[in-house]
Amino acid sequence: MLTVSDLHLHYGASHAVRGVSLAAAAGAVTCVLGRNGVGKSSLMRAILGLVPVTTGRILWDGAEITRLAPHRRAAAGIGYVPQGREIFPLLTVEENLRTGFACLSRRERTIPDEVFTLFPVLAEMRHRRGGDLSGGQQQQLAIARALVTRPRLLILDEPTEGIQPSIITEIGAVIRHLAAQGRMAILLVEQYFEFARALAREIVVLDRGQVVLAGPTETLSAAEIQGHLTV
Question: Which of 34, 61, 134, 226 could form a disulfide bond with 206, CB atoms 3.0-4.6 angstroms apart?
């Protein structure tokens, strides 16, 4: 569904992404691993259209979207869970979820029942302010908000960051469930190797903005991957 080919991205004189290629297929999790500052989030922002690429191509369902505006990509079915969650702390849980309506047609502007099935705590807290939730609950809310947009590609940028182990387990189960349905491609950015290895069909490892390892999870050396994740 998603193909990124030889992507380069600069911030001024800084060459943040260097010739990265990857693909994400429906029904599978593709994980991008790497230490802080190696270009993972910059790559995701380029896929979302939030920063302009220097050269390279981004294809979505076979159509080129390299220069397409971010809101057009969202309307085309690309959902995003940002690093740090970025929920609205003064809005209620339900109001946060309703912000996902922005890219939907009027007839689609409902919160899918599946959101509350996957995250029952949000149903219990739907009238609580987002800022009153724990960090793990806010992360669940951020994922749920992205699911409200009915994405066919879900990009999750470090969803385990700062989250307690029990919630990490729940988030992993949700990602596995969404992939198993076969309708959605999932692009997962992580530093937590064990979490990624348990979910990913394909792994791409970045270092200094470029791909240093890539392939099916079972074919890659765990020790070699972890060597690129340690400081």
Answer: 34
Handedness of CA 53, 54, 60, 65 (dihedral sign): positive
pLDDT above 70: percentage of residues in the chain: 100
Name the 3-class secondary structure at 155.
strand
- Please say if the pLDDT value at position 231 is more than 80: no
Instruction: Tell me the average pLDDT across 200-215.
Output: 96
Q: What is the pLDDT of residue 230?
A: 81
**pLDDT by residue (tens digit) across 94-146?**
999 999 999 999 999 999 999 999 999 999 999 999 999 999 999 999 999 99
Ramachandran quadrant class, 144 (left: phi over 0; alpha: psi -120 to 50; beta: rest): alpha
- Tell me the C-alpha to C-alpha distance, in Å, between residue 119 and each of 58, 75, 94, 127, 198: 32, 24, 13, 15, 21
Domain boundaries, the chain: 2-227
Sorted by sequence, the CB contacts under 8 Å of residue 214 that are 6+ apart come out as: 22, 202, 203, 204, 205
Q: Where are the alpha helices (DSSP H) in 30-90?
A: 40-48, 70-75
Q: Tokens for 111?
A: 């919160």
Considering only CA atoms, give the Rg of the chain.
17
Q: State which fold the 2-227 domain adopts.
A: Rossmann fold (3.40.50)
Q: Is 178 exposed, middle or buried (0-12, 13-18, 19+ CB in 10 A)?
A: buried
Report yes or no on whether pTM surpasses 0.85: yes
